[in-house]
Amino acid sequence: MSDPTTAARGIRQRNLSRLLRMLHLDGPQSRARLTELTGLNRSTIADLVGELTRAGLALEKAPDPSRRVGRPSPVVTVDPRVLAIAVNPEVDALTIAAIGLDRGIPVRERLELDHLLTPEETADLVAERLADWRSGALAEARLVGIGVAVPGLVRTADGIVRDAPHLHWTDAPLRDLLTTATGLPVSVGNDASLGVMAEHLFGAGRGIDDIVYLNGGASGIGGGLVVGGMPVAGAGGYAGEFGQNRPGIAADSDRRASGGVLEDEVSRSRLLRVAGLDSADEPTLAAALAGSDDAAVTEELARQRGILSTALANAVNVLNPTLVVLGGFLATIADSDAAGLLDAVGAQAMSANMEGLHIRVASLAEDRLLIGAAEAAFAELLNDPTGPDR
Q: Which UniProt keywords apply (predicted)?
């Protein structure tokens, strides 16, 4: 026979989780609206909101004074001081940010590098920046954890980076290194898998249940999948490595890397080269390419767009998504001729699979990987807001 007290505690935990998740995903809500959305009665909502407030996770604000009809209902919001630290190591920079449970970003830094980071250096730099922020911008913050978006294969069970080839990391215990350096719980995931999570929850893929996401960064091309509303990670967490597929290239004159994979041909470094840049963040590269009248830039964008269209057609044929989302430099390639890219994909994919298909750029732009990393760090809190570790 089940223990009624234990069962009641489980129901309460699920209701607290549901309420906090709604506030996190959809923003501030009146108590009346929360009552309507959950189907719980007003006194239960008041009790749950009170517990979240006492736990330092939610705030109540005065009702909207413009509302003239009926009893005013307080507005409930997550406490913006509840934050996760998001980290994205790349071959040319380490980006670190504090992301709020309210999705605010009070601090964000990109540390430019002239060498490849080691896992140990990554942990040390994060700990150093975190110590500085805690004595300044984040002095009032409640930090719940760290999420890391890594351009490589991450074993989800233990946070081991099995292979980040461009960083030259193999079997790196990144989760343990960061936990030791900072004292915070750490979640490590593939950057593109975290990127698709962010775009699905908050960005271009919000409300869409079948998504193919390709991310283009300094370390190449990764991918993430949402099928039937659920993220697809694969048996070990390694699904979505579109960049390692062999591209179909019709004309030998369009090939730049003999026997190369997709990310050797559709390449950020090649775009930097034709733009005359040694390095750049995403907005700077996009602006340089868009503002150029150099024929070499136009030709390289067209070449990469053509090869990308074949890769996307293959993904559309296999997965039949509603939406393809492109992030990073792939978004720049798409924006250079969005209609042409869609037409090129349609010319190579099965016509039935193209019905209703949309191709969009990542609307969270350069913050998408950081927001996804923060979601991973918030996961435990959202599942059990007032658990024993809180």
A: Kinase, Transferase
Q: What is the pLDDT of residue 1?
A: 47
Q: Where in the chain is the domain with CATH 1.10.10.10?
A: 4-65+72-78
Structure tokens at 102: 């309210």
CA distance 271 to 374: 29
CATH number of 206-363: 3.30.420.40
DSSP code, position 139: T
CATH code of the domain made up of 82-194+369-383: 3.30.420.40
Q: The whole model's pTM is what?
A: 0.92
Identify the CA nearest to 64 among candidates 107, 33, 91: 33
**Token digits for 41?**
């009665």
Cα separation of 186 and 295, whole Å?
46
Indicate the residue type of 14.
R
Instruction: For the chain, give the number of residues.
Output: 390
pLDDT over 60 (residue 69): no
Task: Provide CATH 3.30.420.40 ranges for the chain.
Answer: 82-194+369-383, 206-363
Q: What is the pLDDT of residue 35?
A: 96
Out of 3.40.50.300, 2.40.30.10, 1.10.10.10, 3.40.50.460, select the CATH number for domain 4-65+72-78.
1.10.10.10
- List CB contacts of 4: < 8 A, sequence separation 6 or more: none
| 98-122 confidence digits (pLDDT tens) | 999 999 999 999 999 999 999 999 9
Beta bridge partners of 327: 215
User: Per-residue b/e over 33-42, b at no fewer than 16 CB within 10 Å?
Assistant: bbbeeeebee
Distance CA 258, CA 273 (A): 19
Which residue in 249, 188, 240, 245 sits closest to 215, CA to CA? 240
Q: What is the mean pLDDT of the chain?
A: 94
Query: Mean pLDDT throughout 288-293?
Result: 96
Task: State the pLDDT at residue 20.
Answer: 98
Query: What pLDDT digit, counting tens, does each position of 366-376 carry?
Result: 999 999 999 99
